[in-house]
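User: Just a sanity check before I run the rest of the batch. Below are the structure tokens for the first item. I only need the designed sequence back.
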């Protein structure tokens, strides 16, 4: 029997977008656009919208096709754990933290993972959202064998906010 060679996905592959079921489209737009700053690129009546950063066709799709006025999915069920949104710099992450604090929007966590620093929160439909920035790859922690040594430590939010005072 011939053995099929192992397949490896191309290294340039990236996740294009996430599409979320939401109970209330306007409420979701208020969060993702009004609070986080995404821009609407297209709407489909009052049932769906595509939103993006920087003019891309869409990073996030939001729809009520199967979920209009539905309660959040049970926490202890299969499904999406969180949507991760990568900010270009640590200062950008500090800016969104400051915006969330000014809006009195609750975090569910904050962590230093060695490779990144992350803020965790839930959107209005209790979908998990991770906001983070990646440290430069050459600064990622490594084990003796060269593999990644990611961890979860407490993130100093005051130190992160200090980025806003730097020029």
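Assistant: Here's the designed sequence for the first item:
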């Amino acid at each position: 029997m011939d053995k099929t060679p192992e397949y490896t996905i191309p290294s340039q592959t990236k996740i294009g977008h996430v599409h979320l079921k939401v109970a209330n489209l306007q409420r979701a737009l208020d969060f993702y656009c009004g609070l986080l700053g995404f821009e609407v690129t297209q709407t489909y009546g009052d049932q769906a919208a595509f939103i993006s950063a920087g003019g891309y066709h869409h990073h996030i799709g939001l729809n009520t096709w199967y979920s209009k006025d539905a309660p959040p999915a049970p926490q202890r069920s299969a499904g999406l754990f969180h949507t991760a949104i990568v900010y270009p710099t640590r200062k950008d992450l500090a800016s969104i933290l400051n915006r969330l604090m000014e809006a009195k929007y609750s975090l569910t966590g904050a962590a230093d993972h060695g490779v990144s620093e992350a803020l965790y929160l839930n959107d209005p439909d209790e979908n998990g959202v991770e906001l983070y920035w990646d440290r430069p790859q050459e600064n990622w922690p490594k084990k003796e064998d060269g593999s990644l040594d990611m961890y979860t430590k407490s993130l100093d939010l005051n130190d992160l906010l200090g980025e806003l005072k730097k020029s």
